[in-house]
## 1
Amino acid sequence: MKHQAHSLRIALTADPELPVPPSQYGGIERIVDMLARALLARGHSVTLFAHRASNCPARHVPWPGSQSQSIADTIRNAATLSRHVAVGRFDVVHSFSRIAYLAPILPWPVAKLMSYQRDISERTTRAAARLSRGTLEFSAISRQMIEAKPLSGRWHLVPNGVPLHVYSFREQVAQDAPLVFLGRIEAIKGPHLAIEIARRMRRRLVIAGNIPDEHSAWYEAHVAPHIDGEWVRYVGPVNDAQKNALLGEAAALLMPILWEEPFGIVMAEAMACGTPVLGLRRGAVPEVVEHGVTGFVCDTVDELVAAGAGLQMLRRSDARARVERLYGDEAVADGYMRIYLQLAKRQRSQSAASLSSASER
């Protein structure tokens, strides 16, 4: 565990819809909780702005508004954040929530980091960077997010990760171990393709995850007819303990996504258990999975089925080692700490320059 020479006062923000940590689904909220705990363990002061039911051990300020898409709630939450920042003497304000919550404090002389885990708006980030007068910087969770379009401002890269103690490494699994699909049950996640891949590989498949109400009709048409309780099982949403067991006992995680997913935390969760990933070359899959070492990254379903024959040649220890090196909680905390220290240093320099300029007038 790494400790800094001096502690920082850090404000973290999460979206208001889900508590930190979430009980089941909630990828961003898991990252915020993991980061807060790692920072606290290093001796930093952390204040978390989040859903009122959050039980992260950081000092907690509940959002008054519960909906990100509500203009009224956005105004209330932005006012809450600005009120606390005005008196909190924070070294860094790190937002994982809506950039609109930062609007009142953008021109203030406090270092700010906006982390994107969803699509990046060129127009919004350009305006925010200009209004912040150099006090706001940005981070993304994969290279493909920031290489896809020209972006304004200073950008950093810190991948998502997982708390390593939650996931137990499994050196070996049964020869007839099933494949696993874990994620929201909707078309862009590819559960229907996972069923096809498992059938063609002649392996059992376990499907886990929540079915959003708006995708229930799609589930009934494209997934439900294939569930027989033997070759294809659906076990619903899973908590951390269930996820650890499910992934650890699998021959591979199937990641046949049909969209440019920014990261896909489930890949790191699987590899932390030693489980390789079979994924389509979309989004961050080629960045997270080392082809031929921690899984296989292919362009088509046909190629994934063929690659599945090589699962026995992969060493599960290589998957765990990659997560420990790049995607563990300490690695993620290290990445953000480097940015915090750079931000704080630049802010001190900028403040000193402003004072010097003022004294000369």
Note: The mean pLDDT is 93.
## 2
Amino acid sequence: MPVTIYNTLTRRKEALVPGEPGQVRMYVCGPTTYNLIHLGNARPLVVFDTFRRYLEYRGYRVTYVQNFTDIDDKIIARAAEEGLDPGVLADKYIAEYFLDAAALGVRPATVHPQVSQHIADIVAMIRSLVDKEYAYAADGNVYFAVDRFAGYGKLSRRSPEEMLVGARAEIEGDKRSPLDFALWKKAKPGEPWWESPWGPGRPGWHSECAAMALRYLGSGFDIHGGGYDLVFPHHENEIAQAESYTGQPFARYWMHNGFITVDQEKMSKSLGNFFLLREILRRFPGPVIRFYLLSTHYRHPLDFDLEGLEGSARGLARWQKTLDELEQRLGGRAGEAATSGPAHPLREQVAATRETFVAALDDDFNTPAAMAALFALVRETNSFLARSQTGDDAGTLAAVRACLKELGEQVLGVLPLAGQAAPSSREAQVVTGLVDLLLEVRSLARQHRDWAMADMIRDRLAGLGIGVEDTPGGTRWEWRG
């Protein structure tokens, strides 16, 4: 059975047929690095990381590109507030991103391009669009002429009236049409800039991803992913530029995850109803948050509530407890053959679980159905363990263990629950000493009312899986994964 995915471009499920057999080329829009990521930002990170893992499990080689937008109006404004160079601010939050991503079990992409490092690619694309009269210069700015691209609107399927309502506000004064969007922005006093044929300036938001995707994946790459909020105008505008530039289809499949909402309203920084991932990590281990995000189908909205996270913590704890008991029963027999020992009905369920799991993920990446199959296996395994004696049916136990680790760890990325093993022996002594030293520095910072430094130490330790708690009896820390 082939992997099928819902293609936003065609509005239907389609079999995934890569342009190159056995090789999937995928681009996913990454964060704008002006703040810590919130839970809404984390959803596409987890969704597409898991999809990548699954494609690799199915035998594909995956080239996975996720960018960082490290120059943007929001970055410039935040840098001015903090008295920092915009590049320094962006680098700071790129580093923080990797801490949060690691806590969620999100693996680094094959390539993480940054806008500031690809100005030449962006300028070359814009110059070509101007030469082909798909774009025009006006007083140091360059705009894409939407009416020149006949396919504009094919991704979002919005009417011109809807596009006008939903279009992102750009520089208005010298545009020929309200729908035209900026490819290059004239430098303003105090802002970072680069030289270009149109004078000093910086790229527009929409030109960045198009140029970087083409740079690393070429025309007609397989999958472009991102949040549903990017369908219009960002992804629509990427298509217009890229296809006008190359004369070829840009991406063949478009995947979009649904919003995370709070009280049925989209979670966003602009609305002020967001929860920073770093804050949630202080209360829940990264694997629990990942489990929670995968418990709802990626295309459906997910209304955030703590009860849902607490339910995910209980559910994942059951998986881990079963895996721990299997490890205990099998002892040191890490290499126990899953086919050894007498046949048992539970062995048949292991095979059925794999089959159901794969069928669910083949069907537009249905993670809730895949996880339900693992829950059923855990339930039957616990009944089996309650009836059996230590050492009985070692082959069956090894088969279940292998299945849980393969599907729960390799594909879903939620096991082990701790997220990472605590160090031992000499390593533990070194880690303990370093953490204690950092907490002493933090204590001095608090005494001097340097709350920013104290919070930074606590947050960076949290990103490494170390929870810090201030109590009336002093500061305590523990491994949390």
Note: The chain has 15 helices and 15 strands.
## 3
Amino acid sequence: MGRTFLEAVAKRRSYYKLGESVTIDDNSVVELVDSMLATLPSPFNVQSARIVILFGEEHRALWDIVIEELRDIVPADKFEATHRRINEAFRSGRGTLLFYEDTSTLEMLKRNYPLYADKVDAWSEQCSGMHQFAIWTALEDMGYGASLQHYNPLIDESVAKRWSINDKWQLIAEMPFGEAKDVPSSRSQTSPPRDRMRVYGLYNK
């Protein structure tokens, strides 16, 4: 904690072995999400991001749903390994954030700005991505490890039923978080960053 923004961004990693020990008070996580929802940008300030926070038994219930949904599609000889990985990497953590986009607000935006209607879905994904990245980075800076998962749309119906989710909310991603109990591997680059950027008009004295 107390890192600069750039240090926090560089530190953010995916953790696949989580514990449920409390690093920060659960209310601090709620306040973090509240702050991010209040300040992060959205197209035309439509504020389409929706986030569900699950702690304790509610968090574990989510991963039980994932396990049961996977049971029907994962080959029997691979299911035990899948079950073990979900238990150790996700279910064992402190909580999970569910990232949604409210499609009713997006449809309103398309109606109000027909000139940009074909861009709204892409903007929605960008909006959700900013929320995911900012919260992920902040959680790690506060002492938790996390990762970003995508078991949607496989789990959408069961999750919506379990937590009475508005049928206009579209599940985008799941972020389990908790005590970081593994050490991520070193970052690798498929090509140097400078090979992936272009710079024009740079002034050098």
Note: The domain at 5-196 is CATH 3.40.109.10 (NADH Oxidase).
